[in-house]
TrEMBL record:
It comes from the Bacteria. Coiled coil: none annotated. Residues 12-80 form the HTH gntR-type domain. Keywords: DNA-binding, Transcription, Transcription regulation. The lineage of its organism: Bacteria, Pseudomonadati, Pseudomonadota, Alphaproteobacteria, Rhodobacterales. This is GntR family transcriptional regulator. InterPro entries: GntR_C, TF_FadR/GntR_C, Tscrpt_reg_HTH_GntR, WH-like_DNA-bd_sf, WH_DNA-bd_sf. It comes from Marivita lacus. The keyword Transcription applies. Transmembrane segments: none annotated.
Length: 237
């Protein structure tokens, strides 16, 4: 169960309002085809806020993995371009969803282990907020967005570039529209509640800096996803 947690004491009403407004712009896809966000100055004028509040909001969204920045280019929704994207496009048609889950089972428990060993207190707070966003999502697309952001954050905090690249490749392959439709079918109110509890177990182990427990909790979570996805696909055949 998601427990009530105190809000970040550094957040002002304006900063929180700006954060929610920009998050909504990103999550609803109200952006050009390249995913580029307006400039800080434009956002500040549009939202009637100071640029400092806009900058803090963008920092938070970048930490959550919902946006990325490139010096001289701007701020964009989603993840930064990665060389794995081209490889993912090449192999996606040859990989089925269950094979992708097998790969996740090989990679993500180890990432959770490393995450627990290397996470800071601030990292744990960020993970809990992402889990809370996943829990509070009111539709499948939003739930998928925040769920993915949580798993990506764990992979990044783990701090192993090679393993992060492997994770990114798997994540790119599984983001195809047909695959997302299969995952949506396997996601019900009952399974979502169970997944939320499993997310909390993973984060609690990370918070305790218990790598072995974090790996076990992640494996348990992925095995549940695997089993539900398989059953959903079997019902459709």
């Amino acid at each position: 169960m998601i427990q009530d947690r105190p809000k970040d004491t550094q957040e002002t009403p304006e900063a929180d309002r700006v954060l929610q407004a920009i998050r909504q712009i990103v999550s609803e896809g109200r952006l050009p085809s390249d995913g580029r966000l307006p400039t800080e100055r434009h956002l500040a004028a549009e939202l009637g806020a100071g640029r400092a509040s806009v900058r803090r909001a963008l920092d938070r969204l970048e930490a959550e993995g919902l946006i990325w920045r490139r010096q001289g280019k701007g701020t964009f929704a989603g993840q930064p371009p990665d060389p794995t994207e081209e490889l993912a496009a090449q192999i996606a048609s040859d990989v089925d969803p269950l094979s992708a889950m097998e790969a996740r089972l090989c990679i993500e428990p180890a990432l959770a282990d490393l995450c627990a060993r290397r996470a800071t207190g601030e990292d744990v707070v960020r993970l809990r907020k992402l889990a809370e966003r996943t829990h509070d999502a009111d539709d499948s697309d939003s739930a998928e967005l925040w769920d993915g952001a949580l798993h990506r954050a764990i992979a990044r905090i783990a701090g192993n570039r090679l393993m992060l690249t492997a994770f990114t490749l798997i994540d790119e392959v599984r983001m195809g529209e047909d695959w997302q439709e299969k995952r949506h079918r396997a996601r019900t109110p009952q399974t979502r509640a169970f997944y939320d509890a499993q997310h909390q177990k993973i984060i609690d182990a990370i918070d305790a800096r218990d790598g072995a427990a974090a790996a076990r909790a992640m494996r348990e979570h992925l095995e549940t996803l695997f089993d539900n996805l398989r059953k959903s696909m079997e019902r459709r055949t």
